[in-house]
Amino acid sequence: MQISRSVPGSRPRIGVPVRLTSSSDPDPRVAEANALFEYIVELLREGGGEPVPLTAAGTDDGGLAASLATLDGVVLPGGGDLDPGLYGETRSGACYDVSPAQDALDAAVAQQAIDAGLPLLGICRGHQLLNVLYGGTLVQDMAPGTVMHREPAPAHGTGPWAWHEVAVQAGSKVASLYGSESGGVTVKIASGHHQAVARVAGALRVTAVAEDGTVEALEDPERWVASVQWHPEALELPAGERLAPFRAFVEVCRNRA
Q: Domains in the chain and their CATH numbers?
C-alpha cells in the first residue's frame, strides 16, 4: 500500500526527531536544547507546516521508515555532542550529553530522509551530524577565543548566544531560506556551540564561513539538503527574522510534496 503525503493545500508534514535527554539534567545546556526543540516545532507550525515528532520507537523494525513515508521534509535540531567514535576519534572530556540513542535516532532519520529524497534542514547539532553522516569530521572543542566567535550584540540581547554576521553564498539553499533566490545574503546569527565542522565531507559544499574560519553552512548540491551552524530559532531574534527561514523551508517541502 502506498502511503500518501500531504495533499495540495494542506500543511506539509515535517518530521523533527525528539530530544531524548531530560531537561532535569544538571547540565543547563540540555534544558536549553530541549527548549530550542520546542521553538522549532512552534515556528514550523506558525510557518504553515505540520510538525511531526519522531521517536526512537520503530527505528530498527521499519516503524521509522513508515513514519518518514508520510512526511514532506525533515528538520534536524540542536542538542548535545555527537559521539566522536562516529567520525573515528576518541571522546575528549569536553564532550557533553553524548547519547548513543540520540545519535542512532538522528542518524537514522537523516539517512532515511536523504534516501527518500525529502528536503532536509540541519541546525547546529543537525549541521554537524550531516557533515559526519556524509563522511566528514568535527572539532571536539573549539579553542578559547573562537568558541561562540563574537561578543554579544546588545541590540538582540545576550541570552546564551554570541552574535555575529555571516555572508551566505549567492544561489545557495540557505540564501533562499532568507529570501534571496539568486544573490547572496548577510545574516545576523545566534551562535552557541563549542564544536564545529573540521574536515568537510567531500559530497557537501560550504556556503557560509565565519570570519574565524568556522564552517557556518553546508549543502548537498545534488538534493535539497542544507544545514546551518547557527540557531535561526533563537528567541532573542525579532519575530519576523525567526519565522522567515522556517516559513521558507515549509514552502520547499510544500513544493516537493
A: 13-140+194-256 (3.40.50.880)
